[in-house]
Design a protein that fits this description.
alpha+beta; six-stranded mixed sheet; three-stranded mixed sheet
Length: 420
């Protein structure tokens, strides 16, 4: 096989490089199993990334672990989606479950990906999100103000699953937050995003997405001028995009970050309560919220994996990857790589100092389109909660993790905001 080299691995003297022994792959399988059991796999992932940057699994999947290699490959242009939804749920030697969905950005490649992303991107730039920040804060305060601080609240359900949909509605213009069925459908959508999803879960998830798409199609022609839905409606009318692409893209924007943002908030609150000196630091200086969220993403990212496929025969270090083969990035492991993290990567410290961007939102052409928005929502909530309630603590025992590996968070985080 004549392969195009896309990276020289290892990158630096002494870097671990490729592990062909099978030991690292067995440790990876243990980390996955820990996630499915609701156990934090971070210690295993940290050990993985200290041992190798790249692992060829016995399942035929190439697993990328190191931070520098992750960044380089995601930006290389040598990988595409070819129907992959992003998780290891679909990472197989044969793309049995891969399905390119018109309009779902994380399953399609150029030129369709660029054509559709270009229409939506202006609404999600850092500058556009910053202009929305006063509105985001207003919505966040309205939600937080409804919480009686003297009684327990599940902040994942009562803030994490409420606020992001309201914020996305500001941009999209479809008011799905007012739809009684949307939350239940969003939860059903998530059921096929894990490797162990069975046929029943996949069918339920597909049905939920179809119902969300129907809601969007029914509301599309009434979207306000200047909204993302309005931009896409005009693209449909001038032939730049099809009706299916428009509806699906709007569905993805509403659904894809629903759990990830809620889990990011929950993971962050647990990390802060586990590290009270960090909570007090943020309470005293809310301007540190961006540093805090970056550290949460590094320390306990909700999105642990991203899967791509080789566009052509390529060579990564000493590993040949045939065209169409799966390449799965262990984003959570890359974030714990000591070579790209000042200090102890297993410690939670928002004062860590300058560090490369976290790998949690992917990179390159398929960088999460709403990354800045997700960050902004969680920054706003954490800054406000910590400033108001620096003594908040959980009730009813330590929060329980969900049983998952790709998208990880807490099923619920019950807090007493103002214990007396």
């Amino acid at each position: 096989m004549h392969s195009t080299p896309v990276t020289g691995c290892p990158h630096t003297a002494g870097a671990p490089g490729v592990d062909d022994s099978g030991e690292t792959y067995r440790m990876l399988e243990l980390a996955k199993e820990a996630g499915y059991l609701g156990v934090d796999p971070a210690p295993l992932l940290a050990e993985l990334v200290r041992g190798a940057e790249l692992v060829r699994g016995s399942d035929g999947v190439t697993y990328v672990i190191g931070r520098e290699l992750t960044t380089e490959l995601l930006r290389s242009g040598s990988l595409g989606k070819q129907g992959e939804h992003g998780s290891t749920a679909f990472a197989t030697t044969k793309a049995a479950h891969a399905e390119q969905t018109p309009g779902w950005l994380t399953t399609i490649d150029r030129p369709d990906h660029q054509r559709l992303r270009r229409i939506a991107a202006r609404h999600f730039t850092h500058a556009a999100v910053e202009r929305r920040r006063p509105q985001i804060r207003e919505l966040a305060l309205a939600v937080i103000d409804t919480l009686d601080p003297t009684v327990p609240h599940d902040v994942v359900a009562e803030i994490g699953f409420r606020l992001p949909t309201q914020v996305v509605d500001l941009i999209v213009g479809l008011d799905l937050a007012t739809c009684e069925s949307f939350d239940a459908l969003a939860h059903e959508h998530q059921r096929d995003r894990e490797p162990r999803a069975d046929t029943t879960a996949r069918q339920a998830a597909a049905q939920a997405r179809a119902e969300v798409f129907a809601l969007i199609a029914a509301r599309l022609d009434t979207a306000p001028a200047g909204s993302l839905a309005d931009d896409l409606r005009r693209a449909r009318d001038d032939g730049t995009a099809s009706q299916d692409e428009v509806v699906t893209l709007l569905g993805q924007i509403h659904l894809a970050g629903y759990h990830a943002t809620a889990y990011l908030l929950g993971n962050g609150i647990v990390a802060l309560i586990d590290h009270p000196e960090q909570l007090l630091l943020l309470a005293a200086d809310p301007d540190r919220a961006a540093e805090c969220v970056n550290e949460i993403l590094r320390y306990d990212t909700p999105v642990t994996t991203a899967t791509y496929r080789a566009q052509d025969d390529i060579r990564i270090g000493h590993v040949d990857v045939p065209a169409g083969s799966a390449v799965s990035f262990l984003l959570a492991a890359a974030n714990l790589d000591p070579r790209g993290c000042p200090g102890d990567p297993m410690a939670f410290d928002m004062r860590r100092g300058p560090a490369p961007d976290v790998a949690s939102y992917g990179g390159g052409a398929h960088l999460c389109i709403a990354a800045a928005l997700s960050r902004s929502i969680v920054e706003t909530v954490l800054a406000e909660l910590c400033a108001r309630y620096p003594r908040m603590r959980w009730t009813g025992g330590r929060p329980v993790r969900n049983h998952a590996f790709h998208l990880r968070g807490y099923e619920r985080v019950d807090l007493l905001l103002d214990p007396r």
